[in-house]
């Protein structure tokens, strides 16, 4: 069972929690203008890890037949039989239960909205079958991380929390469009929908750049609304440069650095924003 758990964690790319978790911490820091106590920090971390792992587990289970046909994903655990479907469901339901428990322990409103978040995770896995707006649904799913953390600590929704979540949602949608460029021919061949498959790679990269510009604007307005200081703005400039950089290293005729943009630059971006926010709050 421990061996299967290892396969499951590899299957859901557990390490990619780095995309959403730092922004949950950013929201937690900004919600009260201080570092949350250890109790709340523990449950926020557990909720984020549980929610993100649940989302990926559901995606891998729902998409297993598509993954088996895709040259990029045919060697994933479920298509290769490294883990059985019922085993994947077993671990996914366990982490979903952890997510629900964490939401319950944090606040009443967080627990009330938690089932809706799980439904969004399920819905996302089906969207590519009927709409190229799937990138934005993924953005919504991950963009809920900071809003959920904010709600968990304050039991309310504020304009600052919404702006931060919109910024994260746009950031995710933008880099997911870039990542989808790798699957254009496959998506078209079997009738899956994505912005690159529908509009072409060149237009898709332009759309992604516009979305990332909008994300930068939302991060800027968030800082203004919450009256954040110099350290936050320095972090935002660095993050904006990383968004710019990934559009510089990728072109319609050279997609070889997609993984660099997707994993390295975006993973670093979330950490930069977290560190800048933590330093900003810590020096007040």
UniProtKB/TrEMBL annotation:
Coiled-coil residues: none
Alphabetized UniProt keyword annotations: Membrane, Transferase, Transmembrane, Transmembrane helix
Pfam families: UbiA (PF01040)
Domain of life, source organism: Bacteria
Keyword Transferase: yes
Principal location: membrane
EC number(s) from the headed UniProt entry: 2.5.1.39
Residue stretches spanning the membrane: 41-62, 82-99, 105-126, 133-153, 159-180, 192-215, 221-244, 256-279
Record-level Gene Ontology MF annotations: 4-hydroxybenzoate polyprenyltransferase activity
Subcellular compartments: Membrane
Cofactor: Mg(2+)
Keyword Nucleotidyltransferase: no
Family as reported in the entry's similarity comment: Belongs to the UbiA prenyltransferase family.
UniProt-recorded name of the protein: 4-hydroxybenzoate polyprenyltransferase, mitochondrial
The organism of origin for this protein: Sporomusa silvacetica DSM 10669
Gene: coq2_2
């Amino acid at each position: 069972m421990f061996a299967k758990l290892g396969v499951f964690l590899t299957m859901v790319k557990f390490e990619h929690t780095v995309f959403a978790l730092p922004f949950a911490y950013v929201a937690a820091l900004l919600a009260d203008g201080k570092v949350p106590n250890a109790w709340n920090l523990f449950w926020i971390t557990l909720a984020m890890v549980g929610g993100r792992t649940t989302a990926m587990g559901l995606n891998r289970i729902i998409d297993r037949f598509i993954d088996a046909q895709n040259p990029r994903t045919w060697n994933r655990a479920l298509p290769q039989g490294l883990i059985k479907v019922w085993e994947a469901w077993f671990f996914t339901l366990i982490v979903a239960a952890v997510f629900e428990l964490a939401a319950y322990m944090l606040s009443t409103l967080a627990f009330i909205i938690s089932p809706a978040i799980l439904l969004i995770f399920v819905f996302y896995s089906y969207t590519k079958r009927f709409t190229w707006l799937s990138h934005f649904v993924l953005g919504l799913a991950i963009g809920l991380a900071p809003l959920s953390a904010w709600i968990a600590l304050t039991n309310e929704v504020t304009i600052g929390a919404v702006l931060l979540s919109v910024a994260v949602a746009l950031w995710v949608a933008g880099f997911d469009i870039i990542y989808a460029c790798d699957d254009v021919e496959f998506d078209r061949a079997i009738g899956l929908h994505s912005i690159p498959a529908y509009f072409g790679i060149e237009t898709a990269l332009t759309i992604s750049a516009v979305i990332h510009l909008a994300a930068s604007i939302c991060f800027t307005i968030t800082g203004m609304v919450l009256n954040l200081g110099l350290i936050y703005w320095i972090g935002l400039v660095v993050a904006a440069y990383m968004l710019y950089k990934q559009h510089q290293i990728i072109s319609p005729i050279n997609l070889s650095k997609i993984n660099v943009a997707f994993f390295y630059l975006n993973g670093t971006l979330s950490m930069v924003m977290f560190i800048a926010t933590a330093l900003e709050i810590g020096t007040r």
